[in-house]
Design goal:
The complex is a heterodimer of chains A (about 325) and B (about 300). Chain A has an 8-stranded mixed sheet with strand order 6-7-8-3-9-10-12-11, sandwiched between helices. The model of chain A has no long low-confidence stretch (mean pLDDT about 85). Chain A has about 325 residues and is α/β, with parallel strands linked by helices. Chain A has a domain of about 170 residues: P-loop containing nucleotide triphosphate hydrolases (Rossmann fold, 3-Layer(aba) Sandwich). Chain B has a single domain, classed as MetI-like fold (Orthogonal Bundle). Chain B has about 300 residues and is an all-alpha fold. The N terminus of chain B is likely disordered. The chains are: A alpha/beta (about 325), B mainly alpha (about 300). Chains A and B meet through helix 2, helix 3 and helix 6 of A and helix 1, helix 9 and helix 10 of B.
C-alpha cells in the first residue's frame, strides 16, 4: 500500500447491456438491448462507504455485479488497485475475488441449506487458501463467527436453524473471513425487520472501523444509507443522477430526482410528516429497453425543458465533492 | 429506558464458547429421515420389499426343487396334481409345464427386480447428467438439448420398443436398450428444471462471487440440492420399469424361456386360468401387485419427507 488516499476502485463509463428476446420473436431476430447500467463512473477510497440508492430496476444490483465481474460488461473500465478487471479470464479474476466479497439481500437464500454454517463460512478460505490445515481453518472460522456475534460453538448447525438476522451475520462472516478490502452489500437489510436492520448496520460500521474495509452499500431505504454512507450515489435508469457526500446530499440535493427521493423519506413524527411537502413524480419508470433521449429523467422531471431531450447531461462538479448530472442546476 | 446492549451475547461469546461443546446441527437430510421413519405406510412397504428382495436372493434354498426339472408325473394332469401344497414341498404348486412354480417365481422376481433397478439406474444416471448439463450451461445448448428431448418424447415409445424387439430379436439385452432409450427423457426434464431453479439461488451467486470454480459449485452446491428430487423420482421409476417389462413380457415379446419374469408368469397364468389353475395366475400377480405398491408407497413417503416445500 503506497498511497492511502488513492482510490482502491475506480469505475469509468461502465455499461452493462443485456440481450432481451421479444416474446414471439423469431430465433434469428436481433435481440433488443436492455441498458441496465449505461455509463456509470465513480471512485471508491480505502475504508470509505459509498451508498447507492435508486428505485427498483434502476441498475443498482447490476452495477454491483458488474464491478465483481459477474455479469458481462458491454463497455467501460473497472480498475481495482491499479489493475483493469474488465476482460480478465476466470483464473486471473479469482486472485482478486479474495479482496472483494459480497453480502446478499435474502439472508437465508444466500446460504446453502445443505451445508453447516462452519462449512459455509470456510468456503472462501478453502477456495483462496487451500494450503490451510483443517484446524487452522476451523480456528479462523470460529474467530470470525465470534466477531459477527454468532456463538462459535454453533458451527455444526444448519442455516434453517438460525433467524434472518443471524443468517445475515453468517453471510457477513463469510465475506469477512478472507480479510477483503471491499465488501459489496446488495440490499443487506431490506429483508430484515427494523430492529435487526439496526444490529446489522451497526455491526457493519463496527467492522469497518476495526478492519478498514471499504463498503459499497446498496439500498432503497434512504435513511439507512444516510446513516452508514460517507458518500451517496443516486442512480436512475442506469445513469448517475447525483453523487455527493452524504450529509451534503441530504441537506442540499441539487438534482430534481434526488430532491423527489429525499422529500419522500418519512419523518418519524406525525405532525412534521403531515406538514412536510412531498414532491410526487407522475408516471412510472420508463422502460430501460427504450430509455428517453437526452436526460433519462426528463419524462418525469418537474422542471424539464426542451433542450433536456437533446443532450445527455454530463456529471458536473458543483463544489464540495458534489457532482450532478443536470443541465438546469 | 434502560441502556440495553444491542447484542447481549457479544461480550460473553468468547468465554462462553470456550466452555461449551460444539452444538450438533440437524441437517435437512436428518429432518427428512426423521419424517420418513415416521411414515407408517412407507416403513411397512420397506419391510415388505425387503422380504421380496430376500425371497429373490435366497428363496431357492427353501425349496428342494429347481426351476428346470419337469415332473413327468404331474405333466398333463397339473389341474389335479399340481395344486400348491406344503406336504409335497411344492409350496406354489406346478406351472403348466410341470415345473416347480415356487422356484419359477423366485427366478421371475429376480429378473423383474433386476430390470426395474438397472433400468431406473440407467435412466437416473443418463437423465441426471443430461438435465444438469442442459440446465447449468443454459442458453442455446439448453434449447437444443431440450428440443431433442421433446422430439424423442413425442414418439410413442411402446411402439418403438415393440418394433425393436421384433426387428432385433427378443432378448433381455434388447429390452434394456429399448427401455433405457426412453426412460431417461422425463428424468432429464425434471433435473433440468430443478437445476435452473437452483442455478439462480443466491448461494450459487455467493459461490461465484467468492471465486469457487464451476465444477466445485456443481459438486458442492447444485448436486446436493438436486438429490432429493432425483431420489424420489428414481424410486417411482423402478415400479414403472417393472410395469413396462411386465407388459412387454405379457405380450410375449420380452423375457424368453427358460428365463422368466413376473409379466411372463402372469401371462402363462392367464392362459391357463380357464382350466381352473388359478394359482398360476394369482401367485405371481400377488408378488407383482404387492411389490409395485410397496415401491409407490416408498416413493410417496420419500417425496413427503424430502419435499422442499415442507421445510
Amino acid at each position: 500500500m503506497k498511497d492511502m488516499t488513492a482510490p482502491i476502485l475506480s469505475v469509468d463509463d461502465l455499461k452493462v447491456w443485456f440481450d432481451v428476446k421479444m416474446p414471439g420473436a423469431w430465433p434469428w431476430t436481433k435481440p433488443r438491448k436492455l441498458k441496465a447500467v449505461d455509463g456509470v463512473s465513480f471512485t471508491l477510497n480505502p475504508g470509505e462507504t459509498l451508498g447507492i440508492v435508486g428505485e427498483s430496476g434502476c441498475g443498482k444490483s447490476t452495477l454491483a455485479r458488474a464491478v465483481m465481474q459477474m455479469v458481462p460488461v458491454e463497455a467501460g473500465n473497472v480498475v481495482w488497485l491499479g489493475e483493469e478487471l474488465v476482460g480478465l479470464d476466470v483464473g486471473q479474476m479469482r486472485r482478486h475475488r479474495k479482496e472483494m466479497q459480497m453480502i446478499f439481500q435474502d439472508p437465508l437464500a444466500s446460504l446453502n441449506p445443505r451445508m453447516t454454517i462452519g462449512q459455509i463460512v470456510a468456503e472462501p478460505l478453502k477456495t483462496h487458501f487451500p494450503g490451510l490445515s483443517g484446524a487452522e481453518m476451523k480456528a479462523k472460522v470460529r474467530e470470525v463467527l465470534d466477531t459477527v456475534g454468532i456463538l462459535p460453538n454453533l458451527v455444526n448447525r444448519y442455516p434453517h436453524e438460525f433467524s434472518g438476522g443471524q443468517c445475515q451475520r453468517i453471510g457477513i462472516a463469510r465475506a469477512l473471513v478472507v480479510n477483503p478490502r471491499l465488501i459489496i452489500c446488495d440490499e443487506p437489510v431490506s429483508a430484515l425487520d427494523v430492529s435487526i436492520q439496526a444490529q446489522v448496520i451497526n455491526l457493519l460500521m463496527k467492522l469497518q472501523e476495526e478492519t478498514g474495509v471499504a463498503l459499497i452499500f446498496i439500498a432503497h431505504d434512504l435513511s439507512v444509507v444516510k446513516h452508514i454512507s460517507d458518500r451517496v450515489m443516486v442512480l436512475y435508469l442506469g445513469n448517475v443522477m447525483e453523487i455527493a457526500p452524504a450529509d451534503r446530499l441530504y441537506a442540499n440535493p441539487l438534482h430534481p430526482y434526488t430532491e423527489a427521493l429525499i422529500s419522500a423519506v418519512p419523518i418519524p413524527d406525525p405532525e412534521l410528516e403531515k406538514a412536510k411537502p412531498v414532491m410526487l413524480l407522475d408516471q412510472d419508470l420508463p422502460s430501460p429497453l427504450n430509455p428517453p433521449s437526452g436526460c433519462v429523467f426528463r419524462t418525469r422531471c418537474p422542471i424539464a425543458e426542451p433542450r433536456c431531450a437533446e443532450v445527455k447531461p454530463p456529471l458536473a462538479d458543483k463544489g464540495a465533492g458534489q457532482e450532478v448530472a443536470c443541465l438546469l442546476r | 429506558m434502560t441502556n440495553v446492549t444491542l447484542n447481549p451475547q457479544q461480550p460473553r461469546t468468547a468465554e462462553m464458547a470456550a466452555r461449551m461443546d460444539e452444538v450438533k446441527g440437524r441437517s435437512l437430510w436428518a429432518d427428512a429421515r426423521a419424517r420418513f421413519l415416521r411414515n407408517k405406510a412407507a416403513m411397512v412397504s420397506i419391510f415388505v420389499l425387503a422380504l421380496v428382495v430376500l425371497f429373490a436372493f435366497f428363496g431357492q434354498h427353501l425349496s428342494a426343487f429347481d426351476n428346470e426339472t419337469i415332473d413327468w408325473d404331474v405333466l398333463g394332469n397339473v389341474e389335479v396334481l399340481g395344486k400348491p401344497s406344503l406336504a409335497n414341498g411344492h409350496y406354489f404348486g406346478f406351472d403348466e409345464s410341470g415345473r416347480d412354480l415356487y422356484t419359477r417365481v423366485v427366478q421371475g422376481t429376480r429378473v423383474s427386480l433386476m430390470v426395474g433397478v438397472i433400468g431406473a439406474a440407467i435412466a437416473v444416471i443418463v437423465g441426471t447428467t443430461y438435465g444438469a448439463v442442459a440446465g447449468f450451461v443454459g442458453g442455446r445448448v439448453d434449447s437444443i438439448m431440450m428440443r431433442f428431448v421433446d422430439i424423442a418424447l413425442s414418439i410413442p415409445y411402446m411402439f418403438v420398443l415393440i418394433l425393436l424387439l421384433v426387428v432385433f430379436g427378443r432378448s433381455i439385452g434388447m429390452l434394456f436398450v429399448g427401455i433405457g432409450l426412453t426412460a431417461w427423457l422425463d428424468m432429464s426434464r425434471i433435473v433440468r428444471g430443478q437445476t435452473l431453479s437452483i442455478k439462480n439461488k443466491e448461494y450459487i451467486e455467493a459461490a461465484v462471487a467468492t471465486g469457487v470454480p464451476w465444477f466445485i459449485i456443481i459438486h458442492r452446491h447444485v448436486v446436493p440440492n438436486l438429490m432429493g428430487v432425483v431420489v424420489v423420482y428414481a424410486t417411482l421409476l423402478v415400479p414403472q420399469m417393472i410395469l413396462t417389462e411386465s407388459f412387454i413380457s405379457f405380450l410375449g415379446l420380452g423375457v424368453q424361456e427358460p428365463l422368466t419374469s413376473w409379466g411372463a408368469l402372469i401371462s402363462e397364468g392367464v392362459s391357463t386360468m380357464n382350466y381352473g389353475m388359478l394359482w398360476q395366475l394369482f401367485i405371481p400377480l400377488g408378488f407383482f401387485v404387492v411389490s409395485i405398491f410397496a415401491f409407490f408407497f416408498i416413493g410417496d413417503g420419500l417425496r413427503d419427507a424430502l419435499d422442499p416445500k415442507d421445510r
